[in-house]
Amino acid sequence: MAVRKFFKKILKLLSLNDLFKKKSHVKLGLYGPPNGGKSTLANRVCQDWLGEEMSSVSHIAHETREIVIKEQVNIKNDKGKEITFSLVDTPGIATKIDYEDFLKRGIKKTEAKKRAKEATKGVIDSIKWLDDMDAVVVVLDSTKDPYSQVNITIIGNLQAREIPVLIAANKVDLKKSNIDLIKAAFPQYEIVGISAKYGKNFDDFYDKLVDFAS
Amino acid sequence: MVTFQFIPYYEIEPLGSAKRVNKILNIVKNNKIVIMEGKLSKQEEADLIEITMEEIKPNFTGIELSVINPEKNKLDGFQKLKHSLVNMLVGDRQGLTIIGPASVVKKIVNNPQKIELFTQEMNGKKSPAKRRKRRK
User: Fold this and answer.
1) What is the ipTM of this complex?
2) Is the residue at B80 inside a domain?
3) Which of A98, A207, B28, B54 could form a disulfide with B61 if both were Cys (CB 3.0 to 4.6 A apart)?
4) Nearest Cα to A188, choosing from B72, B95, B45, B79?
5) pLDDT confidence bin for A152, thresholds 50/70/90
């Protein structure tokens, strides 16, 4: 891993990355805490541009417990600028996972324990995949406190790896949504308010996505 | 009863990343809340989450973590220079890191004005255990 990182850095320094990496091989990751709407966003993007869904979604946290990749997603903005990328939907990053939380959502004990085990592995995979991303959309639930350490750790790690970040403040259709709080927490980043569930403000989202990932 | 264990910066400074993370996690797994002078690097924070996930069992459900940073954007040019020089000489011991076991700490709310640490109660309800104002 260290050797791979070293060569990646050397390639970046020599700007040879761009010679070998076609735009069609850009890996765009969806990162964030559980239940922020990453998979709903992934499905919206895939429905809009490929006409098919990508991931299963649920109100229960940690529904996505494995990395899901959709290759060759091509999107175009109003100005005619386009980008092709592999969309990587990642399991939500958390610092704690208790199988009893699944029990409370009506899942049976054996299944709850299995889910918890898979969820812990999912978090580990999400962190490991950070190094492979070319650009990341951090999906935050705009009805929740943005100052959580998980959010800060994710964004800090992306910043340390010099990976471009776009913050999608999701669930703006809900009354409790507060984008200003997210803007105050992460003033150095481009933030776009969306409702992945209802497709609200997606022209603006695609516009910003094409600009930042190309 | 909630037990806090303070880790001064000089105790973690000579340790490599893996040892730092393990030291913290070993204390937390003993149901103590760590208050550490200074902060982990972003990579170490990610490592801490990763190793925590590997350690999760029915009797250890994870951690709650919060880092209190001095608001550097409020410093003027001279203060920033002074801080950089101090960091170079004695290491970056600014900030405070709070890490507790999820079985003890329900939630740490960290917004720019205050920090609230909610502990778990036997009946599972949360209660504010500690409230401290952040220095401006």
Assistant:
1) 0.83
2) yes
3) A98
4) B72
5) very high
